């Protein structure tokens, strides 16, 4: 059974940095046409798109509020994805989920575009 495993979450002060990683058990997840993404869900809120890496062209996509602070990258050799998070804010506090799928371009930011999900990792930004 295909698995995605996130790591790197934790507690950080406002303005600090964290690096999240997502490792996949299936090599086919790094095939052309696959998209890897990060979503997050804060308490009492719906899950929202954060960032994505589309293998078709290597383009990246971001939630407006994280542009310039977060960077998503993909390592095909290691079959992993990383989310570098800088200048963290309390509103970034959430459970962060890794997802993999083959969404059409217009569905890159949609939950429905992804078939495989990790179990999530908690990120807490607080002083």
List strands and helices in order, with pairings:
Elements (H helix, E strand, L loop, with lengths): L3 E4 L2 E3 L5 E7 L10 E7 L6 E7 L4 E4 L7 E6 L4 E6 L8 E8 L12 E4 L3 E5 L2
Parallel strand pairs: 2-11
Antiparallel strand pairs: 1-3, 3-8, 4-5, 4-9, 5-6, 7-8, 9-10, 9-11
Description:
By secondary structure, this protein is mainly β. Helix content is 0%, strand content 48%. It contains no helices and eleven strands. The strands form two sheets. Strands 2, 4, 5, 6, 9, 10 and 11 form a seven-stranded mixed β-sheet that branches. Strands 1-3-8-7 form a four-stranded antiparallel β-sheet, with no helix packed on it. A hairpin with a 4-residue loop joins strand 7 and strand 8 (80-85). 32% of the residues are buried. The mean pLDDT is 94.
Q: Biggest sheet: strands, sense, closure?
A: 7 strands, mixed
Helix content: under 10%
- What structural class should be given to the helix and strand makeup? mainly beta
The span between the termini is 40 Å
Overall number of strands: 11
- Poorly predicted regions: none
Radius of gyration based on Cα positions: 14 Å
Mean pLDDT: 94
Shape: globular
Please write the string of helix (H) and strand (E) elements. Answer: EEEEEEEEEEE
Provide a count of the helices. 0
Q: Strand share of the residues?
A: over 45%
Labels describing this entry:
127 residues, mainly beta, 7-stranded mixed beta sheet, 4-stranded antiparallel beta sheet, 11 strands, 0% helix, 48% strand
């Amino acid at each position: 059974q295909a698995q995605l495993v996130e790591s790197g979450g934790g507690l950080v002060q406002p303005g600090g940095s964290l690096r999240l990683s997502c490792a996949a058990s299936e090599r086919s997840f790094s095939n052309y046409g696959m998209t890897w993404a990060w979503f997050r869900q804060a308490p009492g809120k719906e899950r929202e798109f954060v960032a994505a890496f589309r293998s078709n062209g290597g383009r990246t996509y971001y939630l407006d509020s994280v542009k310039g602070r977060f960077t998503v990258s993909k390592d095909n050799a290691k079959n992993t994805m990383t989310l570098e998070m800088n200048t963290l804010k309390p509103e970034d506090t959430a459970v962060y989920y890794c997802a993999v799928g083959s969404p059409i371009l217009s569905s890159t930011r949609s939950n429905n575009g992804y078939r495989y999900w990790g179990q999530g990792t908690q990120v807490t930004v607080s002083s």
